[in-house]
Amino acid sequence: MLGMADGWITVAWLGTILSAVFCVIYSLVMWNKGDD
Amino acid sequence: MNLPVLIIMLFIYTGIMTYLAYLGNRRTRTEEDYLVAGRNAHPLIMALSYGSTFISTSSLVGFGGVSALYGFGLLWLALLNIVVGVFIAFAFLGVRVRKLSVELGASTFPTLLGKRYQSRFVTVFSGLMIFVLMPAYTSVVLIGGARFLEESLSMDFHLALWVLAILIAAYVISGGLKAVMYTDTFCAVVMLLGMVILLFAAYQSVGGVIAGHEGLTAMKNMVPPSLAEQGHQGWTAMPSLGSPLWWTLVSTMIMGVGIGVLAQPQLIMRCMTVKNKRSLNRSVMTGGVFMFFMTGAAFMIGPLTNLYFKNTQGKISMAVANNNIDSIMPIFIKEIMPEWFLYLILFTLLSAAISTIVSLFHVQGSAFSEDIIKTLGINLRVKNPLFLSRIGVFLGMFAAVVLAYLLPGNIIAQSTAFWYGLCASCFLPALIGALYWKRATRQGAIASMVAGFVVSAFGFLFLHAKEAKAFGLAKTLFGMDTLLAYPWTHVDPLFYALPIATVVFVVGSLLTNKSIKKDSKMAEELS
Fold it and tell me: InterPro entries from the entry (chain B) (predicted)?
């Protein structure tokens, strides 16, 4: 998939992008959470 | 490159950095300002300072070159950098580190551990490890920066070394952590600009994402026989399971650096600089995106260089760079990018070096004054409490420069792996225990730190081939490069030192339970 020869590499390539996206979503969701 | 233009740009760059250090100086009034930036840093500044401290020139050029050799498998490290190095470090460990440090009144990582375990030994041992051994890591980052100045400005290497070290030490001494974090943030912005442009240009140079990956997959038959014997299966596949290449990639590169980041004193203490949990949650976004465009981009670009050079010269990257792994990224950048970008990438890599060294100097300074001198109760009769920290910065700088003269130039990767592995084995069980386990005891922590240090050092000196050969101690004492045969020669010491230190910590704590009369309130609440 994605032109890679190995599924583990596809997971790593996609995972790197998605984990950065996750960090953005996490911050936005938690923006005002947590006692001051 | 036009040298006069470059020199003018360098003056402007130095001017901006000096102004930011001056700003840090103006806003530093108390010891807490100097050590933890007054505990009110902006989430954006904290995240960018953390990221640029983590990423040095060798992360981009050195490890980028390594990914050109190994392939996309190194992206597992980029993934861990984001998930472990940012998300877990900020949202989980960071939240507790910040709260515990406020509660215990700790301004440094060794003091945090020492106060939690009510042990001066823990503080002094950690402080000594930072003050004595960290210069080995600082010096290789310094070598990376000085080599770069040498190549780009045709400057004498030793002169570049001293100029860089003295300039950076002056920033730290003048403005403490505020100056460090302000200059870090400027460096991070320059780094982001350079790497974002480079990532898109690299994919464009090989015809796009899918076409690039497919072209690289089709190059499997160009893997050199020597690498294929070691387990290389092409640049879009992992090395074969259990092969020497697999062990090096997984145990040293991915696990060693990916997990080791959690125990880096200069990174952990960044979480003490923000005001509250909310700030840490907001930092996750900036940290994650920054890390993606640093290691994520570098490890995507590295393998693609093989396809670009195959299309243009019919050779793989290692052949184009005459087997010098550190030359791959610079050669590729010069080939595909316009001249104006070369100036930007030069400042990107210079910023990567400076932002890391500036933080290492600061941590070494505070280890000397706060963790060693103050904890041991040595009275040096100085009026200004920050004077000792500044002396520590100067001593750390001097040690790093001297080591840069002594260390061979090709030891950057080994020295980095050594420092990361040692910190993880030594500090990680005690740190996790301090934050998450109320039954963790002083004896358990001390035993685990000593065990982690001894086992890790033994592994690096006598078992792991790359470092053992470089140190040469096994050869001198026993007449052989390493004491055990494969796979131990390729298994990173972190792989066995960290589990051993963890077992020692748990067993030691269970056997000596109730030794700490009064656990910290937070540890009671949270466990």
Answer: Na/Glc_symporter_sf (IPR038377), Na/solute_symporter (IPR001734), Na/solute_symporter_CS (IPR018212), Sodium:Solute_Symporter (IPR050277)
- The three-point CA angle B233-B234-B239 to 5° equals 40
* Domain span including residue A17: 1-29
Shortest distance, CA B239 to any CA of chain A (angstroms): 10
CB proximity A17 to B under 8 Å: yes
Nearest CA in chain B to A11: B76
Chain B interface, mutation test: which of A19, A24, A33, most B Cβ atoms within 10 Å? A19
Domains of chain B: 3-526 (1.20.1730.10)
Nearest-Cα residue of chain A relative to residue B286: A24
- Best mutation target among A10, A11, A13, A32 (most B Cβ atoms within 10 Å) is A13
Burial class (CB in 10 A: 0-12, 13-18, 19+), B487: middle
Query: Does any domain span residue A35?
Result: no
Q: B375-380: list long-range contacts, CB under 8 Å, 24+ apart.
A: B375/B111, B375/B114, B375/B120, B375/B123, B375/B124, B375/B127, B376/B120, B376/B124
pLDDT tens track for B187-234: 999 999 899 999 989 998 999 999 999 999 999 888 999 999 889 989
* Closest partner CB to B296 (pick from A16, A24, A35): A16
pLDDT for B427-444, tens place per residue?
999 999 999 987 799 889
Question: What is the Cα–Cα distance from B397 to B169, expressed in whole angstroms?
Answer: 7
* Mean pLDDT across B113-134: 91
Whether residues A30 and B282 touch (CB distance < 8 A) is answered with yes
Packing angle of the helix pair B157-205, B328-336 (nearest 10 deg): 60
Selecting from B216, B217, B289 the residue whose C-beta is nearest the C-beta of A24 gives B289
